[in-house]
Description:
The complex is a heterodimer.
Chain A: E1 9-17, H1 19-34, E2 40-47, E3 50-53, E4 73-75, E5 83-85, E6 89-95, H2 105-122, E7 128-130, E8 133-138, E9 141-151, E10 161-169, E11 189-190, H3 193-196, H4 203-219, E12 223-224
Chain B: E1 2-6, E2 16-22, E3 29-30, E4 35-41, E5 44-49, E6 54-59, E7 66-68, E8 72-78, H1 110-115, H2 119-128, H3 146-154, E9 166-167, H4 173-188, E10 191-199, H5 201-218, H6 225-237, E11 244-247, E12 250-253, E13 259-265, E14 268-270, E15 273-274, H7 282-297, H8 303-306, E16 311-314, E17 334-338, E18 342-348, E19 352-366, H9 372-388
Parallel strand pairs in B: 13-16, 16-17
Antiparallel strand pairs in B: 1-8, 2-4, 2-7, 3-6, 4-5, 6-8, 10-19, 11-12, 13-14, 13-15, 17-19, 18-19
Amino acid sequence: MTTDTTPTLDVRWLGRVGYEDAWSLQRELALQRAHGEIPDALLLLEHDPVYTTGHRDADSNLRVSREMLGAPIVPSDRGGDITFHGPGQLVAYGIVDLKAAGLGVVGYVRGLEQVIVDTMAEFGIEAGTECGLTGAWVGDEKIAAIGVRVGRPAGGAGAWVTTHGLALNVNVDLGWFERIVPCGISDRGVTSMAHLLRKPPSVREVGERLASQFRNFLGHRIVTN
Amino acid sequence: MTYTLMLPEIGETVTEGTIERWLKQPGDEVKKYEPIVEINTDKVDVELPCPVSGTLKEIVAQEGETVEIGGTLALIDEVAGETPADISPPKPSDAEPPAATPTGSRGTGRAKERRRATPRVTNLAGELGVDLDAVTGTGPGGRIVEDDVRAAASGAPAAKPTASADETIPLTGVRRTIAQRMSESAFTAPTAWLAMEADVTGLAELRRERREAFRERHGVDLTYLPFMAHAVSQALKGHPYVNASWHEDKIVLKKRVNLGIAVATDRGLLVPVVTDADTLSVAGLAKAMTSLGERARDNKLTLDDVQGGTFTLDNTGAFGSIISKPIVNLGQAAIITLEAITRRPRVVGEDAIAVRSVVTICLSFDHRILDGHQAGAFLNDVKDRLEALGPGSEID
């Protein structure tokens, strides 16, 4: 009995990248993906400290003045409200052709949630998802945020492609989150792997596990003989 | 000609979207497939392409507004003679909701999903002139194997499923939570069990009589479950130890009656909660439970919907069971089932036998909190309430 072939996934570890640089790289790759020039890609990276928002109402979710934030606010074109990115946080951007992956918009987001839950399980952390609150939670605290954009960058001839993705707190200074209402949800806290584990793994290690779960999610059927 | 731009289906289970940003303004020219508006739903921004070429005439749904699927977004002065493009984002290739599919078991896309056969089998099918679409696969995951093709070619039924490859399903999400809570309950709570029969011939008549009017008046089907929920909620008020929870050093008797209803969904068992169920009529319970059940199946329950349950009702009769032994929901004292209502011969009066509608109700309880006589008294109370129902009973 043969196993299904895994669709190609180009996993790239980019190290520390500025938000805008990563953003323009995503747009470029999304266009290439839409034209079918490259396979699905997963970008793994850490950002310089930055707060990012959806298009509207950023200020209503700030707990301190903009000057007190200590990092710039960048309006982004992903779904979701304000959040923080910075060192110690694994950011994963998926450039995925939805149709080729046999996925719908919601299925993709639910899949990202499951990828996080399964990755956390590998490190002995029991994370879960909650109806109506996108992201991954450990108890009442958020460990990973999700924000995705779906578009058709190459027009009618091209595919529907995702950009943006998820941000997982590995060893990030949680103080950054106290200055905002993360994702617009006011009655919940934020946590990190370092907060939950005696010896936290490196961002890179978590990235490797997450890439493998992401590959599973995109279509590798596990069949044992 | 004016083209009405409507919100297309944007994702499985999505019923509405919020206008995030208009990328074109009235008076702007827009080409077919050019992005025109961004829609936000559930942490996803979807950039919708324009289905026609023309000029944006009027924006109907402003930024920040929430529009239902099919609602009007804008009017476009269309360049004539074009077929509007389908602008819906892709849909999943299988009908299964994604949450029910454990990671790793998703297929590899539309084309491969449909073929479900290795190249070797496909070649064999070609040689033997067998149409693979017409063959039922008996291999792992429904895959078509050589024997299936040979069987189809010879006209014989396919061999029994091969046991050559086992499928590994990683434990995830709801399945993992169910497994953990069930084990914890089974291994920590010493559970005892009781069952009683109730003659619900009167209830069956009552339901038959009111069903049609009820549907017209309330818009939901009148099943037996809300009658049971009502009987249970009322009985709980008189049996505080059944509406209680165990803590290592104390028992807490709950003031409110929040009734958890076990609902089977594609993702696994969910238990949404009807808060203050004892304050609701049968009709009120029917509506509350219908709404919770639908939201559970549509994956739309909020945290509030599943928290705070003090007792659980399990409608095991829905799948035809006539007796069952449920596991107590952790943190509660007991769980009750409503089994299938069937017509059975019963002794009536002194020495006659009649055909009656009869149901078994079962109660599993945490023996640390309750003893058999308390559990029995509660179950008898529920039974009496069910048997007292008949044509003329109050349901609104």
